[in-house]
Amino acid sequence: MAAAPSELAYVPFVSVENMMRLVHRIGIETMLTGIADYIEEDFRRWESFDKTPRVASHSAEGVIELMPTSDGDVYGFKYVNGHPKNTKSGLQTVTAFGLLANVHTGYPVLLSEMTLLTALRTAATSALVARYLAPRGSDTMAMIGNGAQSEFQALAMRALCGVTRLRLYDIDRKATDKLVANLSGLGFDLTACSSAEDAIEGAQIITTCTADKQYATILTDNMVGAGIHINAIGGDCPGKTELHRDILLRSDVFVEYPPQTRIEGEIQQMPEDFPVTEMWQVITGAAKGRRDARQVTLFDGVGFATEDFSALRFVRDKLESTGLCQQLDLLADPDDPRDLFGMLQRAKGNTA
């Protein structure tokens, strides 16, 4: 009879069910704030990370991507897709899972769902950036695109920036109705709007988060007044944008990792030498963020691997003593590391 797997064979796995339990145990706004703290901490040590644009496989229907990084001690990656037409057949636009591993042994130390966690980390990143770039005292956000990410954005902006008034617009009114229903009773002042122009009235922060895989003009130049912070998070692949290029020409543009954003973000419309500022430089004080009340700031957010790394670190740290994971028999661990075949043979009697 083959021996039971050793402790080294098991890797903690956080399922969707357990991720939801973890979020509710911690509290969603507390978790958003905690993930933002980890993202900020990792931005402050930006230069210690391996960085590369994500590896993308594009098709007519969408994109499948791998997002790797390492700080020299821990390695992390995320698998994620983006298929906007999925919702028409009852599927998610975005699904994901991720892993952390020990660099020194190569052994995985955490495997986790990341569909929910990506929504949380995307919102946490947006709100962290807005804390540095949005006008002081901002309390009103226009949310253009009211899909799966929108509630997370709203809650993160409140938790980190104090936003309590939301002006909402989506070309699909059912999406806006869904968002209003989900946030009703949670302390927001909610206004469903009939157009993007209506939504931005009185807003100090504008978040665009649409999913269509095409060039689009969600905001035109004449819609954006002085002093606005734009959180452009829907553009995430070549051939997809949300803002008219004239907005970029009169904005100070902030990005995560320029080599990736120039391929996927709003700045793919611009020349290769179009000036941008990296957010890690703002967070460490190496570069200016918001300078004055009339400045238009634009976060061209496409999501970067270090943010997923930060979110996975947060989850791993919070899992201790919760029991909110399963131990997967994921790694072969023979008694003699040179005798993998022998381990296989000894298990033969258990296959009947």
UniProtKB/TrEMBL annotation:
Highest taxon above the source species: Bacteria
Classification via Pfam families: OCD_Mu_crystall
Descriptive protein name: Ornithine cyclodeaminase
Organism per entry: Paracoccus onchidii
